[in-house]
Structures are given as C-alpha cells and as structure tokens.
Automatic annotation (TrEMBL), chain A:
It comes from Novosphingobium album (ex Liu et al. 2023). Pfam families: TPP_enzyme_C. Residues 55-201 form the Thiamine pyrophosphate enzyme TPP-binding domain. This is 2-oxoacid:ferredoxin oxidoreductase subunit beta. SUPFAM superfamilies: Thiamin diphosphate-binding fold (THDP-binding). The keyword Transmembrane does not apply. Keywords: Oxidoreductase.
TrEMBL record, chain B:
It comes from Novosphingobium album. Pfam families: PFOR_II, POR, POR_N. This is 2-oxoacid:acceptor oxidoreductase subunit alpha. Residues 528-589 form the Pyruvate:ferredoxin oxidoreductase core domain. The lineage of its organism: Bacteria, Pseudomonadati, Pseudomonadota, Alphaproteobacteria, Sphingomonadales. PANTHER family: 2-OXOGLUTARATE OXIDOREDUCTASE SUBUNIT KORA, PYRUVATE-FLAVODOXIN OXIDOREDUCTASE-RELATED. Residues 267-432 form the Pyruvate flavodoxin/ferredoxin oxidoreductase pyrimidine binding domain.
Length: 346, 626
C-alpha cells in the first residue's frame, strides 16, 4: 500500500470493456469479483494501480481490471514488477500468477521477489493443474494425479506454495479460496502490508480439476475442515468445538477438543501473525488429520526493497555533482596542446 | 646476473632508436598480475602521448594452477607515434614470467624480437609443467630471438628485503619490478605509477613502499646494469594528436558512459538490470557507481529477470537497459520478443565471446550476429548496432538509446570481449555538443472521448509511450497479438498480418534515421571492398592502408548499423568488382549481405578466440586481387 489519498470508486469502475474469456464456472470469476470488490474498499486509484501477470488462465486477469495492466511472459511477472516498482515506487502493483506460472517455470522469480520484499501483492491462483495447456499435472498436484502427461498418476510430490514462500523469506503469507466471502478481507490485509504479500488462493478448475478442493470448501465439511487464523484469537475450528494446541513433546501442533467453549482449558494456542515458527507449522499441517489453515497466517513487515534501493541511491548521490562533462573526464587525463606537446593534467 | 643466450640473430639497432610503433606482450601466471602490469603500462604510454591499442588475453579460471600452460595470462600493447588501430600482430618484446608463459607466447614474437625471461622461475618443476624437456633458455631453441634472461625473482626479493614481507608477498612485487624495467626501456615517467601505487595501497603503506621499491629497482636495473646486446632504450615519439583533453577508455567504460549520456539526452532516468557474466559484468560494476546520474542498477536473480526488470522499468517510464554475453542473451530471447510485441524502448548490450554454449568466456568472437538479427521466435525484428572500438562504443551506446526511445523498440548493441577489455586513448567529448532527443509521454487521450489508443501509430509507425500513473489513460498491454490501435487481444488473421507488417516497417524505417554508409578508407568504387563490422575495424583498416600503399585498388567499409542496414549500402557494394568480409565467425555478416543485396560477398573467417592480424587480412586482399 502506498501513502495515497483514498479514491472513491465502485466495483463498476474496475470493470473493463473486455469480454471475460474464462470457462463458465471457473473459480477465476469469483476471484476477479473479490478483487474488484476490494479495490474500492481500500481506496485504490485506478491510475496508480498496475496488474502484472505471467502466462496461464489466471494471467489473463489484467485485461479485466480497469487499471494499468501488463500481461507478460511465462513465470516472469515478479521480475517485471520489480522493474516497475523500482522505476516508480508510487505505483500499486498486484501480481497475478498460478501454480504452474509461479511455482514451476517462475519459481525462481517467486523466491527472489519474496526474499527482496518488493512492496506488492502476489496472488497465486492454485488450481493444482495446468489449465491453459489442457490439463497436465502441476507442481502442486497431489501425488497420483492422473493427467494427459501422467496417465498412470503423477509420481512426484507436490510443493507447498505457502511453505515455499516462508522459506523464501516472505513477511506476509495468507490463504483463501475463490468463492470464500472472506477473500476480500484477506486481500485487504495483503494490501495493507508494506512489502511482498503472498496470498495462495485455491481456485476450482471446472474443466480439468473439478471440485478438487471440496474436501474443505464444500458446505458440508467447511466448518470441520477450515481453520481461519485471526491475530490474537485462539486457533479454533468446527464452530469452536476443536482447536490447535502445541504438543510440547514433539514440538508440533495437535488437534484438541474444546469443551463448553473453554479453549484455554484445552490448551488452544492463540494466533500471533508475527510468530514465524507457528506460521511454518500452520502451513505444513497435513491436511485431513488437520484442517486447512486459511486467512492471514503470517504478517511481520520489514523495510521494502524499493525503499532501501531508493535510500541507497539518495545517500550515494548526496552532495555529488551529476555533471556529465566531469564524469566523462574522470580518471587520469592528459592534454594535447596545439603544439603537439603534452602534459599531465591530474 | 644477466645471462644472454650465446647465439642470436642480432637486430643491430642503434642506441635509443625511435621506431614508429612497438608491440610489447607481458605474459605470466594468471596470479602474477599481468593484467595490472599491462594496464599500468598502458596508462604510462598514454601519458607519454603515444597512440595505443591493447589486447588483454586471460584464462577463464580466476587462479588456474600455477605454472601451467592453461593458466597463462597475457596483455599485449601496441603503441606508436602514428595512428594505432590494432593491438599489433607480432610482439617486438615478450616479457615471460615463467616457462609456461614463454611456451604459449614465444611463437608469436617477431623474428629478432626480444624475450625477457625470469630465470628464477625456470626451475625443473615449472619446466615440467610447461612440458619443456630442457630449459629453452639454455638449449638454443630460442635462437631466432634475442634473449635476456636473469633472475627477476631474486632481484625483486632483494629490492623489497627492507620491508620485511613474507616470501610469497615479496614475490608478488615481481610485476612491478618488471614494469619498472619496461618503463626504462621505453623512456617512461614513473611518477604517475608511484602515485597510483600509493593510492591503491593507501591502507597498507608498507605494501605501497615495497611495490614502489620494486618498480624503482627494475627501472634502475635497466639504467645501471652493464648490459650489452638486446636491452636498450627505445624512445617512441608522441603521436601528433588533435588538441584537447584525453583519457584512456575501455569498451566497457565507454558503453557505461554512453548509456548515461544517452539517458540524459533522452531526458530519462536509467534502469539497468544485469546478471554477472564474463565479459559483460564490468558494465554493471561501472554503472553502480553512477547513481547520482539517475541510474538505478539491479543485480537480478538470472538473465531473464534482468531483462524483464528492465522492460518493467521501461513500461513505467524509465530507459530500461540490460547487458550480457551470448549465453545470457540467449536466455533473454523470449523477453526481447515481448518488448518487440509491446513496443517498449530497451537497450540490450551483448559483449560477445566465443561460443556456442559456454564456449570461450574470456576470448573474443563476433559469432552472435545471427542471434542479434534473427535469434527470436516469430517475426521479431529489432535494430542492431555494432561498436568498432572502445571509443566508438560511447557513440554507439548513445545511438542505441536514441533509436530505442525514438522508435519504441528494443535495440541490441554488439561489442565483444576485445572491445570491452581493451583500452585506447579517447578525446573527451564536450556534452554540450551532443544533440538531445527528449522523449515525450502521452499525457492526454488520443481518441477524443473514447478510451486511449495505446497502439495508435504516428506517421513513422511508432506508438505513444504511456506511463502508468497518468490519469485517464489506463490500458492493458501484453505479448498476445493485439488489435490495431486499441491493443486489446485480437489474433484474427488480418490483424496479425497487419501488425506483423507494421512492426517490420517500423524497424525498417530506422534506416531512414541513420546516416548513409560511408567509406572508411579508399574510394566509393573500385576492384575490391573489404567490409567489416565491430572490432575487426583495426586490422581491416591497417591491412587496407598497407595494400593501398602497395598500389592495390581496395577500400574499407565499416558498418555500424548492422540492422537495418544503411539504405545506400547495397548500391555502394555493387560499385566494387569484388567484396571481402573478414569476420570472427564462420561468415554470418557475409550471409546477411548476400541475402539483402544479392552481392557475391566472400568470407574471411577466424574463430580462434584471437583477433585478426593485419597480415592475415592483407594476405586475403592480395589473394582477391591476384
């Protein structure tokens, strides 16, 4: 977020005249709406907002937001964003990437944009599949995923985007999913975080990986399998009937039953967004035995890359004369006189 | 102390001769400080008013195993009292710090040339490493040359004894001892080097004193040792140069300064995204020290991120620049296509090296011409400029900035390892004489009340540059084919046909905005044109000059604008009976010329990692005219 006067806009102001070309029922529609709903809430200014994407279904996103937008090349959006933000730190930069774009071909750039802490929002749409290339398994696909390139089921284990982000030095890690009504509040928190804010958004690919996330997003299981993290609040789920506690013997989290709402008696841990160790445990919990941790899991700002670069440039330039003539004549020079004799200048 | 070889071809030069030009090569272990010695000798040569050209030649390994043949590092300088455009063919003097340096370099020495060798290093172990069965200093195998062999190691140790250095540190002063001797031989002033040593070792005055003592001892050795024979003073007269302020400049420095000047002439801050690679890193190292000129440097995580960040900066309204060498340029290819497709300004500097793949990281070659002109997917034209010398690289960098910003296109600037590392005297230009080319950003809509048209072309086919942050001009760009004017996704058949043609026409039109091709030396028609590009300028120029002195009808044409080619070049080439194209590749420019003009261009190719010698090109000219 930048220090700018909030601009009054409505959802409509953020819609373009472009025909949206995602498959009917794609989770991307819901994410687009959530973003267009969030932007007026945070007072974003269309002229100072830039959406940057790579390649993939999700990367068509910039065409559908009435702001500046750059649809770049596969996996490289973080590098473009870095140049944009260093050139003009006043711009509000949103990255749109996917599990293939951001974790596979562009994994290197994802790591470095997080490590450097460029002030931007990184939305990684995770549908656990390559959609635009017709359904191959992706680096986040679960073991055994059958696909055109893995007809017998995938044999390599999936990467965990949030664990990768924390390992890369991210200072903000959050999770949401496409149709969640909480998604705008997660995006808002990401926007308010100064620095690289990483948001993994589980997204339903209606064609190639339909209902993949039903095991925690379906209405019937949502309460039981979703744990929404709120800073300063106990880590409760199942309508408060269960919680997460620290197993001091193994230094891992464990699920405990909460009787009569007395979560303290059950030893339920209180969420602290600045606790990096807890964040690691929350994103690494094996799903099934544990619920899916959602919401703002980690949020502990550090100076942003562009501010440090600007400060370094300011210090290095202080009291220095930007005289091109002097620059060209630097070093040891000599003068050739009209008479073709010569002398040492300096 | 001095042991002169018994039999040698005496050159019988008189005392303090004044040759027109002298070529000296310093060769030693990569840890011996040969590049430093050469660099300082270059500076003293420039200060003495000689014109000069240098050729640093070093191994890819930072510290190759001591004494080995592949660990030899050499630095050649050609200096003289008339115009010097090459590093010289064969050295007159070879300073060999060990047997391996002698073995790998002596064959290049002119017959009758002088070898100065350090006997302290010609021990059994080093001779074995250099694969000598007997010492060449004693077995008569060097009889073609004058040999001056004495124990430089022992003399150096003696000269720095007073400073209490360890043996290893003391021997590190050998290069300064040798430099002192060379300064005496060529009648050079020691004062600037003493100043330089004091500055370099400001934090360690003992080392400064020791190095200065070694330098003085080497000089005194020449002055006082009773030496007969080959060691004699040579005085090279200053070249009559155009009056003005001069400095020495390497190609990497010239590119850096040219980019800074170019960005200023465009009225833009500069963003430089780079990734370490030999021999291009020097540009990043230079620019990082120029922050006060509005330069932001970014060492990216890889070559791709380096160019993508630069494109991002151009999109945001700065002048994006990236730089690399062949392998890194290959990685940048896809992003170049995006810059072509989105029509954003960008300067890409390729300091070429020997290829393919990792190839010859520290050796020079011109084999990335196809890569520059054709090396992208799709029909993806962009202008290509080639610098011909270190000093020329300054103007070329400005030209690249001009074309990139005026035509909204990426531009490739080709230099090579030779240009990048070599130094030459440079008459410092006055910035007031540079013609500015300020850019203007679109500030208001170009479509009445309708949405902005980011790809509406002007009469030169150039689209407007629109910075994010500009009110009311929000729009989207990307790598997918786009509709005429609107930039909205549209890959219908007619649109792609039309946009492909428009991108080509825009780049073709650059030829109208650059000077017509001139003839560097000779006539505008005749029996033979020798046409080159890039760092072959020196040897071609000298070879043509020599051939013309012999009365041969030959002219030299040197092309800066490799793509699009100058508009008159085809007609010019057709006005000669024959065309010869010397290149440090297997004939890439030759193919381009044949394709563009249907001329019978004949190749002369060299891919040994070493520049052409004048003699090689001269022989080819004589063959063509025989």
């Amino acid at each position: 977020m930048n220090d700018m006067t909030p601009i009054a806009t409505t959802l409509k102001d953020w819609e373009t005249d472009q025909e949206v070309r995602w498959c009917p029922g794609c989770g991307d529609y819901a994410i687009l709406k959530a973003v267009q709903r969030t932007l007026p809430q945070i007072g974003a200014d269309p002229k100072n907002t830039v959406f940057v994407s790579g390649i993939g279904c999700s990367s068509r996103f910039p065409y559908y937001v009435e702001s500046y937008g750059f649809h770049t090349i596969h996996g490289r959006a973080p590098a473009f964003a870095t140049g944009i933000k260093l050139a003009n730190p006043e711009l509000d930069v949103w990255l749109v990437t996917g599990d293939g774009d951001g974790m596979s071909i562009g994994g290197n750039h994802t790591m470095h944009v997080l490590r450097r802490n460029l002030n931007c929002q990184i939305m990684l749409f995770n549908n656990e599949i390559y959609g635009l290339t017709k359904g191959q398994y992706s680096p986040t696909s679960r073991l055994g995923t059958p696909s055109p390139s893995t007809p017998l089921g995938s044999v390599d284990r999936p990467a965990s985007p949030c664990a990768f982000a924390l390992g890369s030095g991210a200072r903000f890690v959050a999770r949401g999913y496409d149709v969640s009504k909480e998604l705008p509040s997660v995006l808002k928190a990401a926007y308010e975080h100064q620095g690289a804010a990483f948001i993994e958004i589980f997204q339903n690919c209606i064609v190639y990986n339909k209902d993949r996330f039903d095991d925690f997003t379906a209405k019937a299981v949502a309460d039981e399998m979703q744990l929404w993290c709120t800073d300063g609040q106990p880590l409760l789920f199942a309508k408060g009937a269960k919680g997460l506690a620290l197993d001091t013997a193994t230094l891992t989290l464990k699920v405990v039953d909460v009787v009569d709402g007395d979560w303290q008696a059950a030893g339920v841990a209180v969420h602290n967004v600045k606790n990096r160790g807890l964040a690691h445990m929350l994103v690494e919990m094996p799903f099934g035995a544990f619920p899916m941790a959602l919401g703002v899991i980690y949020d502990d700002p550090r100076p942003t890359f562009e501010s440090v670069v600007a400060e370094e440039r300011r210090k290095a330039s202080a009291n220095k004369d930007a005289d091109l003539g002097k620059l060209l004549a630097k070093g040891q020079t000599w003068t050739v006189e009209e008479t073709a004799t010569h002398g040492l200048m300096d | 102390m001095a042991t002169l070889s018994a039999e040698k071809a005496t050159t019988a030069q008189p005392e303090a001769t004044s040759p027109e030009a002298v070529v000296v090569r310093f060769a030693g272990d990569s840890g011996d400080g040969m590049q430093l010695t050469g660099g300082q000798f270059t500076l003293s040569t420039a200060l003495a008013g000689n014109d000069l050209a240098t050729f640093p030649d070093f191994p890819a390994e930072i510290r190759a195993p001591q004494g080995t043949l592949f660990g030899v590092s050499a630095f050649q300088i050609n200096f003289g009292s008339s115009e010097i455009t090459t590093a010289g063919d064969a050295p007159d003097v070879l300073v060999a710090m060990n047997p391996a340096a002698l073995k790998t370099n002596v064959q290049a020495l002119k017959p009758g040339g002088l070898v100065i060798a350090d006997t302290g290093e010609f021990n059994k172990r080093n001779l074995e490493k250099a694969k000598y069965e007997t010492s060449p200093l004693e077995d008569g195998s060097l009889s073609k040359w004058d040999v001056l062999a004495f124990d430089i190691s022992a003399l150096t140790l003696e000269s720095v004894k007073a400073f209490g250095l360890g043996n290893k540190e003391a021997l590190r002063c050998k290069n300064m001892w040798t430099l002192g001797l060379a300064l005496w031989m060529f009648d050079r002033d020691r004062a600037p080097l003493i100043d330089w040593l004091r500055g370099k070792f400001a934090k360690n005055p003992v080392l400064a004193d020791a190095n200065i003592a070694a330098l003085n001892a080497g000089h005194a050795y020449g002055e006082t040792a009773e030496l007969a024979g080959p060691l004699r003073k040579l005085h090279v007269d200053p070249v009559p140069a155009e009056p003005g302020l001069y400095r020495t400049i390497t190609g990497a420095e010239a590119v850096s300064l040219g980019l800074v000047a170019g960005a200023r002439l465009a009225g833009l801050p500069m963003f430089f995204g780079g990734y370490p690679i030999t021999p291009a890193s020097a540009i990043l190292h230079n620019l990082v020290k120029m922050k006060e000129f509005g330069v932001t440097t970014f060492q990216a995580e890889d070559e791709i991120a380096a160019i993508c960040s630069a494109i991002g900066a151009s999109y945001a309204g700065q002048l994006g620049v990236t730089s690399s060498s062949g392998p890194g340029i290959a990685l940048k290819g896809e992003a170049m296509g995006l810059a072509i497709m989105t029509e954003l300004p960008l300067v890409i500097v390729n300091s070429q090296r020997g290829g393919p793949s990792t190839g010859l990281p520290t050796k020079t070659e011109q084999s990335d011409l196809y890569q520059a002109v054709y090396g992208r997917n799709g029909d993806a034209p962009l202008p290509v400029i080639a610098a011909r010398s270190p000093a020329d690289a300054f103007e070329c960098a400005i030209e690249a900035c001009r074309i990139a910003t005026q035509f909204m296109t990426p531009v490739i600037l080709l230099t090579d390892g030779y240009i990048g590392n070599a130094a030459e005297p440079w008459k410092v230009p006055d910035p007031a004489t540079f013609a500015p080319f300020p850019v203007s950003f679109l500030e208001a809509g170009n479509n009445g009340e309708g949405p902005v048209l980011p790809f509406k072309r002007d009469d030169r086919g150039v689209r407007p540059w629109i910075k994010p942050g500009t009110p009311g001009l929000m729009h989207r760009i990307g790598g997918i084919e786009k509709g005429i004017d609107t930039g909205a996704i549209d890959y219908s058949p007619d649109v792609h046909q039309s946009q492909t043609e428009a991108r080509k026409a825009k780049v073709d039109a650059v030829a109208l905005a650059v000077p017509a091709q001139e003839v560097s030396l000779g006539d505008v028609s005749g029996k033979l044109a020798v046409i080159g590009w890039g760092s072959t300028f020196g040897p071609i120029h000298q070879a043509v000059r020599r051939a013309r002195r012999k009365g041969l009808d030959v002219s030299h044409i040197h092309v800066r604008h490799v793509w699009p080619l100058p508009r008159n070049l085809g007609d010019l080439l057709k006005s000669y009976d024959r065309v010869l194209v010397p290149e440090m590749n297997t004939g890439q420019f030759k193919t381009v010329l044949r394709d563009q003009f249907l001329v019978d261009a004949r190749p002369l190719n060299k891919v040994s990692g070493q520049p052409f010698t004048i003699a090689e090109i001269e022989a080819a000219i004589e063959d063509m005219l025989a």
